[in-house]
Design a protein that fits this description.
InterPro entries: HAD-like_hydrolase, HAD-like_sf, HAD-SF_hydro_IA, HAD_2, HAD_sf. One of its GO terms (molecular function) is hydrolase activity. Its cofactor is Mg(2+). With 218 residues, this protein is an alpha/beta fold. It has nine helices and eight strands. The chain has two domains: 151 residues, Rossmann fold, CATH 3.40.50; 58 residues, no CATH class. Helix 1 packs across helix 2 and helix 1 packs across helix 4.
Length: 218
């Protein structure tokens, strides 16, 4: 997929399951929790925690009951740990290409401010970003139009793109605002995997890509 970029182009990205796999954040958090409550044998606990998660058992409840820890403390650790996560292949190549053409890059993501900003920091992309919109910080979540209108107010442009993954909520607002919408197809690890339920016109993106190697910045 070719995207023509110049100084008036604004390319906006979702974060979770778009720039990296959110499942890796979960695994990173479980590891941090396991290391904190069972430092001498954390691997066995981590293995059990992830297995419980895969079996849809409440992991926080299990750890809280087993180690006599408040669930709130575990959730706090989950949300506030320093994540060990990595960008998908070719994301930085795309970012570099956009910047080389004087384009603008932004993020629109749902979640808590501390958690989402820690992810962005760990991914090493803060210096690329011209604007970051996080739902907790502005008091609304996708598909609210205001999350995307905040980008338009912050960065003037003639063409806006939104690249994301979740057909349930990601493309409704940008489609309504006349943006170009692009969906990254689930690689088999996405947290949200019920895309087949949301195939009406307002939910569907204009384009699909399998990975970032398909994006050609011209």
């Amino acid at each position: 997929m070719d995207i023509k970029v110049d100084y008036s182009t604004v390319i906006v990205f979702d974060l979770d399951d778009t720039l990296y796999n959110e499942l890796d954040f979960l695994k990173s958090a479980y590891k941090a929790i396991a290391e904190s409550v069972e430092p001498e044998n954390w691997k066995a606990l981590y293995s059990k925690m992830f297995s419980l998660y895969r079996c849809k058992v409440n992991v926080f409840e299990f750890v809280a009951n087993t180690y006599n820890i408040e669930i709130g403390q575990l959730i706090e650790k989950y949300r506030n740990h320093q994540p060990d996560i990595q960008l998908f292949d070719s994301v930085l190549n795309v970012f570099d290409a956009i910047k080389s053409k004087k384009g603008k890059i932004a993020i629109v993501t749902d979640g808590r401010s501390v958690t989402q900003r820690a992810k962005l920091n760990s991914l090493g992309i803060l210096n690329y970003l011209d604007k970051i919109i996080i739902s907790e910080e502005i008091g609304s979540e996708k598909p609210n139009l205001s999350n995307f209108e905040a980008i338009e107010k912050a960065i003037s442009g003639t063409e806006y793109y939104y690249i994301a993954d979740n057909l349930k909520k990601d493309f409704i607002a940008p489609n309504a605002l006349g943006w170009k919408s692009v969906a990254l197809i689930d690689n088999g690890k996405n947290i949200h995997f019920e895309a087949y339920k949301y195939t009406n016109s307002q939910n569907l993106p204009q384009e699909f890509i399998v990975d970032f190697k398909e994006l050609k910045i011209i």
